Each structure stands twice: as C-alpha cells, then as structure tokens.
Amino acid sequence: MEQQELGATFDDGMDSFLEKFQSQPYRGGFHESQWEEEFEKIPLFMKNSPSEIDPLENPDLACLQSIIFDEERSPEDQARTYKDEGNDFFKEKDYKKAVTSYTEGLKKKCADPDLNAVLYTNRAAAQYYLGNFRSSLNDVMAARKLKPCHLKAIIRGASCHLELKNYVEAVNWCDEGLQIDATEKKLLDLRAKADKLKRTEQRDIRKAKLKEKKKQDQNEALLQAIKARNIKLVAEAPGEDEDSASEGLSELVLYGLSSENPCGTRLSVDDQGRLSWPVLFLYPEYAQSDLVSAFHEDSRFIDHLMVMFGETPSWDLEQKYCPDNLEVYFEDEDRAELYCVPPSSTLLQVLQHPRYFVKALIPTFLVCVGSSGFCRNYLRGKKVHQVK
Amino acid sequence: MSETSPKAEAAKLLPFLTLGERADLQAAAAQHVLALTGSGPGRTLLAGQAALLRALVELAVAPPPAPARDAARALVNLAADPGLHKPLLEAESGLPVRLLGCALDPQWPWAEEAAAVLANLSREPVPCAALIEALAAPEPGESGLERLVRALCTPGYNARAPLHYLGPVLSNLSQRPATRAFLLDRNRCVVQRLLPLTQYPDSSVRRGGVVGTLRNCCFEHRHHEWLLGPEVDILPFLLLPLAGPEDFSEEEMERLPVDLQYLPPDKQREPDADIRKMLIETIMLLTATAPGRKQVRDQGAYLILRELHSWEPEPDVQVTCEKLIQVLIGDEPERGLENLLEVQVPEEVERQLQQQDHQEREQQELELGPGPQAEGASPT
Asked: Smallest Cβ distance to A206: which of B146, B230, B263?
C-alpha cells in the first residue's frame, strides 16, 4: 500500500521534472570545452585520487572521505578501512603510503588482535619492500606477540633475517614456521638458502683467519731474519732508550711490514731466505732522491749506482754524477756523524754496521760527488768515518 | 642371599616392586633387580617372571618417588639381550608405547634411559615394528616420527636428559621403508635437520645413530640426485667428519664444497672407527648410479678420501676407503652396470657373496658387542 503511494509521488515528480526541460535548457551538464576535466573531478570516474583532498575544490571527495574515516565508527571498522587502504597502496607498489595507512590503522588500537596482527604483518611487508629490514622485523615480532603462529609473519621475519645476514636466526624462524606448517614451500626454500649462506659465511671467516695467520707468520719470519742479521731497527723517533724501544718496536715493525710504505714497496724475502729492501738514495746537492724498490742485500752499491747513473740524470746540471765519482754516506743521527761507505760493499754489510739504524724499514743513504765543492762544504765541520 | 632357590628369591621381590609400596623398599628392590640384570643367569631368571617384568615397567614410567631410573636401567640391560624381547613384550605389550611416551616427554628426567631401552629393543624386527606402530598412532598435530626427529635435533628439548640414544632408535627405525619415506620427504625438511648432527661433538652414540640413519636412507637410489643436490646437499656433511686439517693448494681448495674449505689447523677427524666406516659406506652408496658418481666426483670427494687414506690407522676402514677411491677414479662401468644396486647377479655369485657377507656380519657382531648397556649397581 505504502509502496504504491510512493511510486505515485515518484512518478509525479519525474514527470514534472522532465517537463521542465521542454522550456529550460539543462544547466547541470558538462561544459563542452572542458568536459574531460570536469569528468575527472567526479569521484566515481577519477583515474587518480589527489593526495590531499581540499573540501572546497572537491566537496564530493571530501564527503566520501569523511564517511569512510568517520570518527564515530568503531575502532575495529576504522582500522579495517585503513588496512584496506594500505592494501590498495601496496598493490600499486606505493609502499610508503601503505606504511602510513597501516600505521593509522594501528593507532586506532582496536581490540581485535587478529586485525592488529595483520596490520603489523602487512606493514612489515611494505617496510621489507622499502628495504627497511629492521623495521620490518620489529613489526613481525609485534605481530607474533599477538599471534605467535601467524605464518605470514614468520615467513616475513625469516626473510628479514636473511637480508640482515642473521643466517642462524633465519634458519631458526624457518624451523618454527615449519612446525606449524611442515610443507610450506617458501619456508623450505628460505631455510635452504639461509643455511647455505651461513655455511658460505663460515667459510669466508675461516679463509680470512687463515690468510691473517699466514701474513702474521710471514711478518714474524721477516722480523726473525732481521734480528738474525743483527740489523738494528728504529722507530720514527730515534734515540729512545733500548727497553721501551724493543717492545713497541716489534709491533711497529710488524705494522710496518704489513702495510706498504707510501711508495708501495716493502721488505721481502726470496726462496733462498735472502732479504731485499726498499732503499732511499738522497742527493742533498740538488735535493733529489731515488728509491730502489728491491735492493737485494747481497748486491753491491756500485752495481745499483751503475744502473741508476748509466746516464746522468736531468737534475745533474754539471753532469758530474757518474758512478765512478760518487761517494755514499750514511748518517748516524744520534751522534750527528757521517760514515762513508765503499761502493763495493753489499747492502747487508752496511746494514750490519754497529752504527747503522734502519729507520721506518727503509735504509737511507746520502750520495754526492766526492771531489765537488758541494761535498767539501757538506762534510765540513762533521765527523766523517770510513767504513771498511 | 642363598642361591638354592633363585626363583623364589626373585618372587619375593615382587611385592616390594608394586606401585604404592614404600619408596625406600621400592628403591632397594629395584636396585636388587638392577644388579640381577647385570649377569646372564640373572637376566634369564627375570625373563621367566612375567609379573615382575610388568611391575618393573610400571616403575620405570612412574613419577617420583618411584625408583624409575633404576627400573629403566634394569630394562636397558634386559632389552640388550634379543632373546629376552619376547618375554618382555609378552609380559607387557604396551612396553614400546609407554617408554616412547617417556622418551619424548620434555619433562621426563629419565628420558635417556627410556630411549636406551628402545634403542636396544628396536634392533630386532618385532619390537621395531611395534615401535613403528606406536609412532604412527594418530597424534593431534605432529606425527610421532616428527616428534622423535624434533627431540633429536632440538638442543635442550629435554633440559634434564640429552637424548643421545634417540640416534640409534632412529637408525634402527630407518631400516623400514616407511621411516625412510618420511625422512626423505621432499615436501618437508626432515633429513636436512639431521645433517649437522654428523659433527655432534659430545656423543658418539648420537653421531653413530645419525650416520646409520643416513646410510640406510642412501639405499634409496631414486633419491640420490635430490640428496646430492642443493636442497639437501648431503655430501659435505658426510665428508666433513672424514676431513683433517689438510693444507690444500688454492686451486684444490676451490674444488671442495664450501664446508670443507680452509679448515682450521686443529680440525679433528671422527674419532670412532665404526662411524668413519659407516660414513665411507654411505658415500659409496651414493656412487651407485652414474649421475651420483659424477656428483660425488665433482664435489671433490677424492681429495678428502685421499688424505683420509694416508691417515687412517684402522685396516678395515682403510680398505673400505680404498674401494671408494677406486670407484671415484676408476673408469665408468660397462653398459648394464650403471646402477650397481640393480645389477642382476648370477645365482652362484649371489650365493658366494651372501656367504661372505654372513661371515663378515658375524665377525662384526662379535666386535661390536650386544649393544648399549647400563651399569648395574652391586648389592650392598
């Protein structure tokens, strides 16, 4: 009975509504020139939703939003809506927005533990794809506090541990998950992967350890070789007393042995147990230098000088630095005295000289032309010894 | 105690062993029974006392202050004798089920003793079948076998009992195809969890049980490719106990599986010769098929076995090692022999081999002894 009446009113209204347009044009239609833009503004036909909804610009959308996110609805309903919103963003791979939505949902603190567990787990998934593995892990742990057997949370947690290289934890989580569902393929795959990575990592640790040990043994051997030859080493600051020097010295030497000096050369030993040193030649007359990267201890100074001065160097303005003219000295810095080295000596012989101290593992020698004025000047006032 | 009527003596113990009796009397009686089980004649005597055996089982599963531990240890000794399995099961048919419950109960303090009884019992087919049935009984959620594997593989499953003897239990059970099917289920993660136990340092009983289980599983040649592949990756776990602190060259090292590379200088080999032999036998089984042989070769087994051979002090283990090396470096067999497990052996040869096998087996039994035994307390 009521329905018929309603129908009657409706029909009446419709007829009179339609009759209106016989005399007036319809005003509510789109404008011809901008109908597409106007079309886009209708919520039902929107392709992209605006990130901020301005109630003045878009009253319909603002209306809809206030219905969905109405504060008067129950926390569970609101949380569920946020969850759905987050899921939509997730499907579009907009993980940042998804995290925001899920966070809003969790803020409602609704009383449904299942819903909250899902919110945490989903947020964890979004965080995972953002590369925030720690945050993701925290979320799944929160999810598991609410629902310890939530399989999706466990799978996500295991994946996070894998990414964070906590392989043992990853395997443990997989085992926990497999107790709930023994045939879950994702867990089986994750476990196998994590186990293999763990074993590879253990191998890498063993390899590094062995390498380190080998290096230490080599350095120790070098140190022994130096000691056996009675060659005296000195730290950067010579003149320290013997006691403190010897303890700190070994460490310093070992450090010096393990790192290359700035020139990229280091002390080495050959198959016959003979040492080769990086040796620095200084030419005080012209403030020049030469570095011999591997001066074999049994080779003679003259042999190297012949090679180095086969042609006179460019800085040798007077062209007088010929192998025959050269004199080699080393300085005893402690006593500020010079020692003249016969070029026919081997490096080892000089290094073993009681007043020779190797500084920073680079033996250093001064070279000048004996008969030159510079040399005479240089040597004046200094005590010079002849090495036999 | 007079020896003239041992039966009567034993019968006298019975009232003191019943549940509800005074704890101190129970304890003394249980100790006495335990002492009896320490000798052959004592065990035979007890075997004839069905009521006593039943009482013993009741005590073994009873909560404190009952002398459950001594009762269980007495059962361990009794079960060590295969001839006593029949009287035991006849006296108490629920023996396997009840002891299984104890062994797998995380709170039961004498779970290890219960497991030891089961280890002894399950060596023989009839009790083994009874145990399998007990495990198959429907349990909400987890199957009995799954629970057993979990108890074996989870450290701290039972805070008061290490449960090493679950290893031999599983090994005995794996003689049955149904157990192997469960262990080798590709849709689950079962056998993979056993693998790290081949290196378990604190118990050769557990290690031996696990290796025995793996060996039995490797009779299933249909699963070899899967076992040797990345989902299980069984070979490194079999080779690792056989590897020593060898200093291989960089090139050789790269050929080895990851787990065997750069082993530290203090790496020890498996100290138990029987387990070493079982490991080699297991690898040998994996070389039965041509693809299996290839996988074993490619994963660098030869290098490890070569070093093992020069170190190995036990002659029969060395011989086994030699045989395996021969397979690895030998030529591929002729057509028709690709799967050595399926080769048709001529009858005469079959008979000879069986005879040889039988003799070898007898020798082994003598060497290994009758299985795990608990020590008996001497009567005061």
From this structure: B263
Q: How many CB atoms lie within 10 A of CB B359?
A: 10
Rounded Cα–Cα distance for residues B49 and B28 (Å): 18
* Residue A187 in this model has a pLDDT that exceeds 80: yes
Is the peptide bond preceding residue B6 cis, with omega within 30 degrees of 0?
no
The answer to whether the Cα torsion of A74, A77, A80, A86 is positive or negative is negative
Instruction: Give A201→chain B minimum CA distance, Å.
Output: 9
| B142 interfaces chain A, CB cutoff of 8 Å | yes
Cross-chain Cβ contact A191/B189 below 8 Å: yes
CA A364, CA B15: separation in Å to the nearest integer?
99
pLDDT tens digits, B72-102:
999 999 999 999 999 899 888 889 989 999 9
Phi, psi at A314, each rounded to 5° = -65, -30
DSSP per position, B254-280? HHS-GGGTT--TTPPPPS-HHHHHHHH
Q: Own/partner pairs for A317-325, CB < 8 Å, 24+ apart?
A: A317/A286, A318/A372, A320/A369, A320/A372, A321/A283, A321/A367, A321/A369, A325/A369, A325/A370, A325/A371
Selection from B65, B84, B67, B152 nearest residue B115 by Cα: B152
8 A C-beta contact, residue B321 and residue B280: yes
Calpha distance B96→B110 (Å, rounded)? 15
**Nearest-10 Cα torsion for A285, A290, A292, A293:** 140
- For chains A and B, what is the number of CB pairs under 8 angstroms? 46
Sequence-distant (6+) residues with CB within 8 A of B105 are: B111, B158
Mean pLDDT value of segment A66-72: 71
Query: Hey, is the C-beta of B255 within 8 angstroms of any chain A C-beta?
Result: no
- Tokens 């070093």 belong to B307
Residues of chain A in contact with residue B192, where contact means CB-CB under 8 angstroms, are 191-192, 195
pTM, rounded to two decimals: 0.76
Closest chain B residue to the Cα of A174, Cα to Cα: B189
d(CA B304, CA B283): 12
Q: What are phi and psi of B268, to 5 degrees?
A: -100, 150
CA angle B38, B40, B41 (to 5 degrees): 110
SS3 assignment, position A6: helix
Strand partners, A384: A338
Assess A179–B contact: CB distance below 8 Å, yes or no. Answer: yes
What type of residue sits at position B321? C
Asked if residue B327 lies in contact with residue B281, where contact means CB atoms within 8 angstroms, the answer is no
* Phi, psi (degrees; rounded to nearest 5) at A312: -70, 135
Contact with chain A for residue B264, Cβ under 8 A: yes
Question: Where does B174-272 have alpha helices with state H?
Answer: 177-183, 191-194, 204-217, 224-228, 234-239, 250-255
Nearest to A359 by CA among A235, A276, A224: A235
Q: Say if CB B3 and CB B10 are below 8 A apart.
A: no
C-alpha angle A373-A378-A380 in degrees, rounded to nearest 5? 95
Nearest CA in chain A to B186: A183
Q: A207 to chain B: which residues are within 8 Å by CB?
A: 261-262
Report the candidate in B155, B157, B222, B232 with the shortest Cα–Cα distance to residue B188: B232
Mind listing the pLDDT tens digit for each residue in A126-155?
999 999 999 999 999 999 999 999 999 999
Query: Which residue among B189, B261, B264 sits closest to A178, beta carbon to beta carbon?
Result: B189
Q: Average of pLDDT values for B28-37? A: 88
DSSP secondary-structure letter at A273? S
> A333: Cβ–Cβ under 8 A, 6 or more apart, which residues?
A238, A239, A357
How many whole angstroms separate alpha carbon A121 and alpha carbon A141?
Answer: 9
Cα angle vertex B86, ends B83, B88, to 5°? Answer: 100
Mean pLDDT of B300-317: 95
Q: Could you tell me which chain B residue has the CA closest to the CA of A185?
A: B187
